[in-house]
């Protein structure tokens, strides 16, 4: 029976689109399709059935766009329709590259096409794809070879842009195990995994630098609680500008050097840890794609990423806060503030002074990171499903606009920051206790909470929330935008 199914599929693949009526509703057998794929590409980097399943999911997604639940099995009819659409798409792509219309394309033709349309691409990846489809290795690809080698590649997008080469590259390298020299190579999963850390680090540095002045005002408002009448936002700005060390606009970037050093690993670990946790939880839940992870598991993965990142950078975080507070006392100026604060902290409490409020900070970041990353992921998934349904395309082909990413980041970051703000305020006061701007001392988290409540009432637990949200909304938005763009450039899912 499988041999009969394979024969039918091979006829379809080789151009016989018409299928007898009695066979049109038969299901496509993954084993038979896997055998055809294995013979076509003569590489088995992944299981033949796994590759076949991916191709069948591509067909199902196109048959039922935007509907991730209860998709039907792929029938011969659906498979034939897919092949016809794919043939038309490949014909269009080939004709766009083959400008001299000789039904042959060279590698230079491909580069010229990409450059002409100002598309971003990796020359090495494009060359690898080209080497695979150049079956005869004679430096040119015929239309027949082009179709033969790309007809069964899982979905690579609806537009003839750079994604065509990236999806084909992923298929040839990760699924089939083909290297640039057409040798079998190890999976590039590890390098892709590290890519999430790289993208997260880049996103963190850019977003935090853009919003450094808001962070400066927030810390100043939280720490400066010695006055009977709390500082207003405008008074805080004026005070920082006039009495900062150094004064002027540069005062709003005090501690930003430390901030950058801190946020690079923090953001890298947060995003990378989030993606890693999602993959681990996907295996536990038995889900093939982390994008289909349950909402609870996604929120939990976000919390894990946040806790690990907070633990890694906590000493730098404490030092940054104390440098910002010490800068308001005058005296020591410039870079000397950092070394003076560092010496004083070591003298006062040794290494332990860098970890004041650690438990509060690490536990407090869990709900924030869970809501931030979880809400963003939920909004992104809902947007992708909605767009896929509206445009009648596969969810993998939906491209998110910059405004959509910025809006989702602002919402997720603001909700998370508002909910856990009192915990972060108490943590910051524990970290900055005994400084010129915040001379109070606390025994522990509960003692800090009671003293703050006694001095300022419950409103005091939300002091600085305004500038914090003014910082968080653009910071998180920029962070997610840069992260998503960086993932696209690195060809990460």
Automatic annotation (TrEMBL):
Pfam families: EF-hand_7, Mito_carr
Annotated Gene Ontology cellular component terms: mitochondrial inner membrane
Xref: InterPro entries: EF-hand-dom_pair, EF_Hand_1_Ca_BS, EF_hand_dom, MCP, MCP_dom_sf, MCP_transmembrane
Keyword Protein biosynthesis tagged: no
Segments crossing the lipid bilayer: 357-379, 400-421
Cross-referenced PANTHER family: SOLUTE CARRIER FAMILY 25
Domain of life: Eukaryota
Membrane topology: Multi-pass membrane protein
Location relative to the cell: Mitochondrion inner membrane
Family (UniProt): Belongs to the mitochondrial carrier (TC 2.A.29) family.
Domain EF-hand, first and last residues per copy: 85-120, 121-156
Protein species of origin: Starmerella bombicola
GO BP terms: transmembrane transport
GO molecular function: calcium ion binding
Start and stop residues of the Solcar repeats: 191-280, 293-382, 400-489
Principal location class: mitochondrion
Protein name (Swiss-Prot/TrEMBL): Mitochondrial Cmc1
Keyword annotations: Calcium, Membrane, Metal-binding, Mitochondrion, Mitochondrion inner membrane, Repeat, Transmembrane, Transmembrane helix, Transport
Transmembrane helix in keyword set: yes
